[in-house]
Each structure stands twice: as structure tokens, then as C-alpha cells.
Amino acid sequence: MNKFKKAKQLVAYFGLDTSVKQFGKSISTGKRISKRGTSFGRRALYTVALASIKLNSKGKPLNSVLYSYYHDNMNIKPKKVKICAIMHKLLNYIFSVLKNQKPYEERNPKLHEKMYLKNKENNKIA
């Protein structure tokens, strides 16, 4: 993990970043993932992403944040695009856990945003 300074670098390592095509002077960002990274890692992430958006036997989501993101926020996107977005989020979670050496906490995104803004405000004052 010391090789990666930002989560974007880890995402690029797994090949989940968008591809860029250049023809002469025109540059177009592709709508596809680059797939330049490890295919084994992408397959593992795909499996974890599928498992994280499912319900358990009692009808509760295994990860409520990812489940609501998949079913509520991304409802008009195609299935593979939604799964890729979940894989991207999982990589951000993995990067944060390994970089900060703290256990994963499942938080509501709105609560997390409030905590982030409060910490940012406190750091400006100090």
C-alpha cells in the first residue's frame, strides 16, 4: 500500500479508471474502464461487489450503504456500470482502511458528510 499515495492510483492499478483515447489533437474520455490493471483483482472485486449489494436470509442488506447506493442512487444506469461503481467504492474503502490502519465503520453518507465538514471547520480554527 505504500506505493499508492491516493485512492485513484489504486483504482488505476485495478484497471477501473476510465480509458482515454487520443486521435490527433482531439482527446475523448471513454465510457469504458481501462482494464490495464490486474484482471484477477477485478474478478475478486466483482465478486465482492455482487455480494455486498445482496440481502441476507432475513431480508436485510449485507452493506446498507452500498445497497442503497446501488438501488437508489444509480437506478437508471446499466447493471455493469452500477457494479463498476460499487467496485470503485470498495477500492476507496480498502484504501482508506489500509492507509489509516483503522477498522471499517459503516456510516450513513449524510452523517459522514456532516462529520467531515465539522472536522474541516475545526481544522481551520486551530
Give the secondary structure arrangement, pairings included:
Blueprint: H1 7-13, E1 18-23, E2 26-33, H2 39-52, H3 64-73, H4 79-100, H5 109-125
Antiparallel strand pairs: 1-2
Helix pairs in contact: 1-4, 2-4
Structure description:
- The protein is mainly alpha-helical and 126 residues long.
- The chain has one domain.
- It has five helices and two strands; from the N terminus they run αββαααα.
- The protein has a two-stranded antiparallel sheet with strand order 1-2.
- Strand 1 and strand 2 form a beta hairpin.
- The longest helix has 22 residues.
- It is globular, with a radius of gyration of 17 Å.
- The two termini are 31 Å apart.
Question: What key attributes describe this structure?
Answer:
126 residues, 11% strand, mainly alpha, two-stranded antiparallel ribbon, 56% helix, 2 strands, 5 helices
